[in-house]
Amino acid sequence: MIDFTALTLLPQEQLALASAHETQERRRYRGLARRLLATAPDAGHLMAELGRENEQRLETLQDVAGALGLEACIVADDAEEAPPGKRQRLFVVDGPLERQALVQALEDAEDSRLFFDWLLETNATPELHRPLRDFAAQKRAECRILGERLAQSTPA
């Protein structure tokens, strides 16, 4: 017999995990946008746009949490500072550094896609199904877009 309780997460857990993840992703994309904007404006604008998509997903999570009466589960961390040890203050000054930043962004986006696929697989709350499915699809598109941008970048 399969124990389905081990395969699902409570809606509170999913909301907390998803909002913390998207908050971190938003912070990461904003930092990348700042690092890239001066010397690689196209890539910088792309990162800024991906950060705005994180904000939209956070708003969706807040709406769903409100509908479920679980607003307290949403991580409300608006601090711009990255956690200690995670700060990247280096500006991208040439093509190889841009490519390196894009490679890392694509790897992080793939991890994020896998995270949302996992949340969708562990979901047992009907109200969360559509948002999680949409988030997973958006993350797949994000990976595709970053892969295309990486293919256009200067080889290291």
Structure description:
The protein is an all-alpha fold and 156 residues long. Helices cover 70% and strands 0% of the residues. It has four helices and no strands. It has helices at 11-37, 41-68, 95-121, 126-152. The relative contact order is 0.17. Mean pLDDT is 87; it is low at 81-85.
Write the layout of secondary structure elements.
Elements: H1 11-37, H2 41-68, H3 95-121, H4 126-152
- The average pLDDT score comes to 87
Shape: elongated
Structural class: mainly alpha
CA-CA gap between termini:
52 Å
Radius of gyration over C-alpha positions, nearest whole angstrom: 17 Å
Tally of alpha and pi helices: 4
Give unreliable regions as ranges: 81-85
Order of helices and strands: HHHH
- Tell me what portion of residues adopts beta-strand conformation: under 5%
Give the total of beta strands: 0
Taking the sheet with the most strands, its summary is: none
Helix content percent band? 55-70%
